[in-house]
Design brief:
- By secondary structure, the chain is mainly alpha-helical.
- The protein has a domain of 83 residues: Phenylalanyl-tRNA Synthetase, Chain B, domain 1.
- It has five helices and three strands.
- A three-stranded antiparallel sheet has the order 1-3-2.
- Helix 2 crosses helix 4 and helix 3 packs across helix 4.
Length: 142
């Protein structure tokens, strides 16, 4: 279809603007990329989402989106294993999905985000207290 459209476009350019049409076609498609493999682990899914998802739901959600998950951990037969891991193949139409966190987001989106408990991440460090606040606290304790 693209070749036919290209030929028609060349004909119209010749009719309207003149010029010379050279033989052959030029295709500048960058080439096929090898399918990327992304590993999804249950441990990371639990850490990020705060709730467990059954193996069958993980596999069916990712399969429906074209990621073709294959269980690759040592405990392949153990349902719900904390060590569960899936190797997923990135579909050609989903180039934006590149990391494990992207797969977790896809699983959560399919399963509906409100099924997961709301929670805040733990603080990175102790809260910063200004000198003024320290003085106020010290004077309140006297």
């Amino acid at each position: 279809m693209a070749e036919l459209a290209s030929r028609r476009c060349a004909e119209l350019i010749l009719q309207l603007a003149g010029g010379e049409l050279l033989a052959g076609l030029v295709d500048v498609y960058p080439g096929r990329r090898a399918p990327k493999k992304i590993i999804l682990t249950r441990r990371e899914l639990l850490r990020v989402m705060g709730a467990d998802v059954p193996d069958k739901q993980i596999e069916s959600s990712l399969s429906a989106l074209g990621f073709a998950p294959v269980r690759v951990d040592q405990n392949r037969g153990a349902e719900g294993s904390l060590l569960a891991a899936w190797e997923c193949t990135q579909p050609s139409w989903r180039a934006e999905v590149e990391r494990e966190i992207d797969l977790i987001e896809e699983v959560a989106r399919i399963l509906c985000l409100d099924k997961f408990p709301p929670r805040l991440p733990p603080p990175a460090s102790e809260p910063l207290v200004s000198r003024t606040m320290k003085r106020k606290r010290a004077s309140a304790n006297v």
